Amino acid sequence: MTTSSTTETADQMAAADQTAGGEASASATAEKKGTAATNPARLVERAVLMQVGAGLVVRDDIVSSLRKMSRKYGTSEGLEKQLGRYEKRGIRTRNRLERQVKRQRSQFERDIRARRKRLEDQAVTLGKHFEGPAESVGKRLEGPAHAVNTKVGGLTGKIEELLSSTHNRMS
Known about the structure:
single chain, 4 helices, about 170 residues, mainly alpha
């Protein structure tokens, strides 16, 4: 017997056990699992069959996709219709993005104007806050500043006299 006929016989026996019911079916399933796990030929056969099956599924999907595409684009009218749909979708997307950018820009400008107004208001408030004290400090410093100017003026005159007298002695 070959491996495939052995597998078929085991499968037939397991099916017969299942129809008969009871404990025999559970032991046959356990035997079958054990056989597949311990029989390297069965493992190889399963691996090959899985690859062939997966390849056939992919082939069927490709054929199905090609049939759909040929129905959609098979004629020039169908192609033009589909291209028109793509163009409309692109226009809708572009317009949506432009509106979104405008909204964001407007929001940004509103935020900037609000911040500028807040800063200007704070500057006015701070100016008023420091205006009074600055004037009073200025008034308080006027007297001492005048006295310092007078003393500096007097010292400047004395320095000029000393320089001219020194200059006269040297000449």
